[in-house]
Each structure stands twice: as C-alpha cells, then as structure tokens.
Amino acid sequence: MAKRSDLEPLIVQEWLRQQPAGQRSENEILGFYGRLQHENPGLLAFRASGDKYQVLKTILRDHIER
After folding, report:
1. How far apart are CA 58 and CA 40, in angstroms?
2. Domains of the chain by residue range
3. How many CA atoms lie within 13 A of 29 on its CB side?
4. pLDDT tens, 47-66?
5. Taking residues 33-44, what's their average pLDDT?
6. CB 29 within 8 A of CB 44
7. Per-position DSSP letters for 24-60, written without gaps between them
8. Quick one: DSSP state of residue 46?
9. What's the CA gap between 13 and 48, in Å, rounded?
10. Which residue, 13, 14, 45, 50, has fewest beta-carbon neighbours within 10 Å?
11. pLDDT of residue 1
C-alpha cells in the first residue's frame, strides 16, 4: 500500500488531465472517483481511516473551480 502523500501529486495530475478547464467542480469529483476505481485503482491504494471519496475531495480542494 502506497503512502497518500506519494499518490496525491499523481491524483491531482490525473484530475487536471481528465477534467477540462471549466469542468473541475466539486460535482465532478464523484465521477472522477468512479473512473479511478475502475481505470486506475492504484491511485486509490492508500490507507484512509474514513471514506476515500472524502479524502479525494480533500486532496483536490485546491484544484476545484468555484
């Protein structure tokens, strides 16, 4: 299992690659999470004491367009 701190930059990079500018809202994170689960589960292979979706929202908080 990888460290969250090692995966965070890769998750952000994937978010920015997959989500075009103008489509990086908090509402899009759930779909992104689903795609990661199916297409790139290694990016979610970190320990989390709670819901990984909530952790993902925290990781992406500075990369969400409001």
Report:
1. 19
2. 4-63
3. 19
4. 988 899 999 999 999 999 98
5. 97
6. no
7. -SGGGHHHHHHHHHHH-GGGG-B--SS-HHHHHHHHH
8. B
9. 20
10. 50
11. 83
